[in-house]
Amino acid sequence: MISEFEALTEFLGADYSSFYIGLFVGSLFGVFAQQSRFCLRSAVVEFWRNQKGRMVPIWLLAFSFAFFLTQLQLFNQSIDISKIGYLNASGSLSGALIGGAIFGIGMILARGCASRLLILSATGNFRALLSWFLIAIAAEQTIRGFLAPSRSFIVGLFSISPSVRDMSLYLPEGSGLAFGLILLCFAFYLGVKARLSIWQFVTAFGVGLAVILGWVLTGLHASVSFDIVRIESVSFIGPSVEALNSLFAFIPFKPGFEIGMIGGVFIGSLLASLIAQEFKFAFFTKESGFVRYLIGATLMGFGGVLAVGCSVGAGLSGVSVLSLTALVSLVTMFIFAGLTDKFLNG
After folding, report:
1. CA-CA distance, 330 to 149, in Å (whole number)?
2. Contact 41, 116 (CB under 8 A)
3. Is the pLDDT at 22 greater than 90, yes or no?
4. I need a labelling partner for 22 at 20 to 30 A (CA). Which of 49, 55, 211, 222 fits?
5. Per-domain residue ranges of the chain
6. What tens digit of pLDDT does each residue of 124-138 get?
């Protein structure tokens, strides 16, 4: 199988191989996330309001499944950990703390995280589509525009080395795998208690499966390619910037995993909504407001760059490889999103 994969990637070339891997992974994520209603913002609101719903179990099932399978692959040394960006480069705890807090506030204001807004935009929601564009624009300005000096200042407040960022280096061997299994069992228990349907279990696990497939397939590509290939998985801040720039021809189109993944998520979500007859146009109204979406999306774009990931990029992909900065980002997103919801809704 590896020889066939190597022949295919050699035929397509490194860039297009990465693009099609991203398209495949993104399509799976889009289908399963759309059908499961996977969203950190919904899970946070349900948790902090002490509601007995299904969003927390669904999110935890996806998270724990991605975490456990990723740790299993790392334990078996099936993925080259030295090529994972969340671990092999210096990170910023200040960026994770401040960026995660800002992102958490933003996703409450915009009524969805970056991934959820892209998925909703594919189902006819123009509020979500505009918000996704604003996230990408704000992120672009944070990376290369007028917000870049602020980013550099915040990120430079508390930097950490790769050896500190990679928690597997100072945790007992196999502890990530053991924790993942315990968490998966707990998530399954919560899902049964919440009376999730079999389809909800399947789609929640499908979200986690897309994350692990991102790691595995890009890792396999990196192992057979003569070109330098990044090992990565599902994320929405940096890829959204790349997709926006390519879409409007701000930079020459260069195929790669990130652009393929964004396109795949949109296509998968669109197809899933059409098949399930859930496609429905939605626009701004007096009740929905506009300013809160504008502020929320801008905050998510800025905060997501500081945190080096969104609720999926840091929250699922980053934490699944035991990145300290990703874990800090996820925790602060969770806390500040809850505080923001409490402030806005009492």
Report:
1. 24
2. yes
3. yes
4. 55
5. 2-345
6. 999 999 999 999 999
